[in-house]
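ARCHIVE CARD
Drawer: 12
Card no.: 0347
Subject: one protein chain, sequence and derived structure
Cross-reference: see card 0346
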Amino acid sequence: MKILAFGEILFDVDVKNNVRKLGGAPMNFCSHLSKLGAEGFILSSVGRDSAGGEALDFADNFNVNKKYILPNELSTGVCNVTYNGSEPDYNLSIKGAYDNICVTDEMLEEMKEENFDVFYFGTLAQRSDVSKNSLLKVLENVNFRKVFCDLNLRQTYYSDEVLSFSLEKSDILKINRDEFAFLKEKGYCESIKNLCEKYNIEKILLTLDKDGAQLYDFSEDKTYFSMGVETEEVSSVGAGDSMCACFLYNYLNDKPLQLCLDRANIMGAFVVSREEAIPEYTDELIEKVK
């Protein structure tokens, strides 16, 4: 099972507690996939700085394949995180290396030979033309069984063009309840089913925070629900990324959709109960999610 993720590698800086951790949805996603037993590759860029070196070491530690992580002259990405109650707010105003993700013809040929099962992307790295064009090159030149989009809307770093493009390219879409409300408000859809019809999306994973998650499968015209798992909330950073990884891992292993959703929900609750976005897995968790 091989997955290629495209997008940002950055350090989350908890301003209040002065804590600095490597993050970025694609890196979190790939790290969880690798911990579950898949092969996770990431297409991104880091700076030629000490933070970039840390990021590459981090990828090694979590068995994330870094062959498509290219250094450039910009600084490694930074995201300042503050909290509105328990919910994180992300400040991404500083331009980072992930705003200059480049892909060569040689890399595209290598990607074709890898026979990836899934391609994963979001909207943040599309804020720059360079990275957006690289994303388009990959989607136009490399075949994948499925394309998975975690919309991950951040501040104002998206446009109607980016949103429409991302929805149109998605076989499986993950959104949270705020993003779904935004899409409805802006006229992109009237309902989850309508979103699938309009953009030819096969499945939509909708996360509902402490209330759990739901999955809509367009081919069956069926909605699956998974109730929230009671847990002590420590940090929600990375929980959605872990759910995406766990859902996809089980889906690619041909597990029933209800089980895929339930296991993803369990994984998300586990991550919420830990300080780290990629915590050590317990034996009990592994039994429940694999």
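Annotation on reverse: Residues 257-272 form the longest helix (16 residues). The chain is about 40% helix and 25% strand.
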